[in-house]
Amino acid sequence: MPSIREVMTSDPTALRATASVVEAAEAMRRSDIGDVIVLDETDQVCGIVTDRDIVVRAVAEQKDPSDVRLGDICSRDPVTLTSQDEVGDAVKLMTENAIRRLPIVDDGVPVGIVSLGDLAVSLDPESGLSDISSAAPNE
Fold first, then answer.
1. Domain CATH code at residue 34
2. pTM of the prediction?
3. Cα dist from 74 to 14, 66, 93, 139, whole Å
4. What's the rounded mean pLDDT across residues 102-130?
5. Residues 6 or more apart from 131 whose CB is under 8 A from it?
6. Which end of the chain is more exposed for a tag (fewer CB within 10 A), N or C?
7. Residue 93: which residues within 8 A CB-CB, separation 6 or more?
8. How many Å apart are CA 27 and CA 13, to the nearest integer?
9. Using CA atoms, how far apart are residues 21 and 59, in angstroms rounded to an integer?
């Protein structure tokens, strides 16, 4: 089974918990991604926020995205792995915790992120999910 390093998306986007939802949305648009790792004041991973979190926990609640901080809407204390762990470990954790994205953290520093799509491309390249995940993004 391959290591996480072989399938993860390297150099994930990370913002402080004090950053606004607007800053996260701009970073997501710029990098064509759907998630941002959230860091505490010591730059340690403390959460993750997705585009869905922004919609459900801020916009749908009619909160001003300029005033809402990532720390207010992120999923706290995310399950993480290291880049030395195996893909099977990611599959197990994602299944047990019903999560779609898994931050990869080495020595407290986010070095990557693994999504369900990454796993599909790696483990079942002939699947429909793999085809969707490897397709060019909509612009």
1. 3.10.580.10
2. 0.86
3. 12, 15, 19, 26
4. 79
5. none
6. C
7. 79, 81, 99, 102
8. 8
9. 10
CB 4 within 8 A of CB 87: yes
Q: Which domain holds residue 87?
A: 4-134
In a domain, 139, yes or no: no
- Per the rule left: phi > 0, alpha: psi between -120 and 50, beta: everything else, 32 is left
Residue type, 36: V
Q: What domain count does the chain have?
A: 1
CA triple 17-37-47, angle to 5 deg = 60
Tell me the pLDDT tens digit for each residue of 102-112. 999 999 899 99
Give the residue carrying structure tokens 């300029």: 66
Structure confidence at residue 126 (pLDDT): 57
